[in-house]
Specification:
This protein has helices spanning 11-19, 36-51, 97-110, 151-155, 170-178, 187-195, 212-224, 228-237, 307-318, 331-337, 399-410, and strands at residues 5-6, 57-64, 67-78, 83-84, 91-94, 132-136, 139-143, 261-263, 269-271, 303-305, 322-323, 326-327, 352-354, 359-361, 367-370, 376-380, 385-390. The strands form five sheets. An eight-stranded antiparallel β-sheet has the order 4-3-2-17-16-15-14-13, with helices on both faces. It is α+β, with helices and mostly antiparallel strands.
Length: 415
């Protein structure tokens, strides 16, 4: 079991700070280099989205130089019931689980249990014989992996694994036929099913979003000898006091779980229902699938969290792996996560590379990712800036988040 390093600040230093009168002194946005007018405009814009019925509820939070300069909620957690969006609202963060899973795996990297360029099959032998789909003029062949899939490939989505979403694709059709995307079986069983399906391309030659981070979550189990959820709680969530982050919402917290919405034909929000990838004999309202213990511990998209919890995670990352005296990762490991790790020949976006578990903007160094229910975060280390935007809308529409973040960034006052 890992030993978590805690740094204790002597009480007399705290008392000295309090005696100087700093604890009660309010800090204006301008004092940390951001325009208060811009923040006010950002809030007005979010309220307009609510007024127009485009989103049920929106929560935004911005931290600059360690100071929370904006923390506001607009609209409802449940429109039909008239429940306002609360400060402690719990959200389905879906793919914003990926950076958290990445951090959990990288704690084991810090412990020296693997290297990023180790072969995945060295730890999960089922992938040793996984073939690669290779199209030909007269059909296709299944070839051996030219370069073995590595852990770095998993964390950068260059593994050859996909999500099975592309119509007309042979490999994607196998994902659907074999049910690897359904949340109906334990992680180990899903990984064995996945390893029996051909890779969509040779590892390290392309970027494609997929189940790679779910495999990384299983790798945590293999390396730690613990169930993924238990390891995640012990080594990440508990030290960071992320008390509402996990794979399901306990019964006593159900009233805090926000309703999940979609849009009707007129473009206005309406409650979302449907099976959401559950097996046919276990259909349930999509709003309820996080209300019972998870069968599949999906590190790629299976978590819930709060704005408070995700802020703590972001603060830890911005602070080089340490938060409130607790070190989760080495500083150099955080640098790896938040820097472009793609092979030179692989392109992701014109403006972005891809780090480990999240994208990295070339110009600013911002590390960010989002979730299927329209949640987003962005960390800009050079500006000591964290922005969080949460709602619950599917299919995802992150236009409100992009608008909010652009207004905030345009309000940054240069020295």
């Amino acid at each position: 079991m890992r030993t978590i390093t805690r740094i204790y600040i002597p009480a007399f230093f705290i008392l000295f700070a309090l005696s100087c009168g700093q604890a009660d002194k309010p800090v204006t946005p301008e004092e940390v280099g951001i325009s208060g007018d811009s923040l006010e405009y950002a809030a007005q814009t979010m309220q307009e989205y609510i007024n127009e019925g485009l989103y049920a509820g929106i929560a935004v939070r911005t931290i600059k130089d360690g100071v929370t300069v904006q923390d506001e909620r607009f609209g409802y957690a449940d429109v039909e019931e008239g429940i306002s969006l609360g400060e402690d609202a719990i959200y389905r963060i879906f793919s914003m689980s990926k950076p958290i899973t990445t951090v959990a795996l990288m704690t084991l990297y810090d412990d020296g249990l693997f290297s990023l360029d180790d072969g995945v099959a060295d730890y999960i032998p089922a992938f040793r014989e996984t073939r690669v789909y290779t199209p030909r003029d007269d059909g296709f062949v299944l070839e051996p992996q030219e370069n073995a899939m590595t852990i770095r490939h998993l964390l950068t989505h260059t593994s050859g694994l996909t999500y099975g979403w592309q119509p007309g694709s042979y490999v994607d059709s196998l994902y659907s036929a074999r049910g690897v995307n359904e949340w109906d079986a334990p992680l180990e069983e899903k990984i064995k099913l996945l390893a029996a399906i051909p890779l969509k391309f040779q590892p390290g030659t392309r970027w494609e979003y997929g189940l790679s981070i779910d495999v990384a979550g299983y790798l945590v189990e293999v390396l730690s000898g613990m169930p993924f959820d238990e390891y995640l709680a012990l080594e990440v969530c508990e030290p960071l006091e992320m008390d509402d982050t996990g794979f399901f919402v306990p019964g006593e917290k159900h009233p805090r779980l926000t309703t999940l919405y979609t849009r009707d034909e007129q473009g206005r929000v309406t409650s979302l229902s449907g099976s959401a990838g559950l097996s046919e004999d276990d259909e349930a309202d999509f709003n309820d699938i996080f209300k019972k213990p998870a069968v599949l511990l999906s590190g790629g998209g299976g978590m819930v969290s709060t704005v408070d919890d995700y802020e703590k995670f972001c603060r830890m990352m911005l602070n080089g792996g340490e938060f409130n005296g607790t070190r989760i990762l080495k500083e150099e490991t955080v640098d790896l996560i938040m820097s472009d790790q793609l092979p030179e020949a692989v392109k992701y976006k014109r403006t972005h590379g891809y780090g480990l578990g999240g994208q990295v903007e070339y110009e600013t160094g911002a590390y960010s990712w989002s979730g299927a229910a329209s949640t987003s975060f962005e960390i800009i280390p050079a500006q000591k800036l964290i922005m969080l935007t949460f709602t619950q809308l599917m299919p995802n529409d992150h236009s409100y988040a992009a608008k909010y973040m652009n207004i905030v960034k345009n309000g940054i006052q240069e020295d």
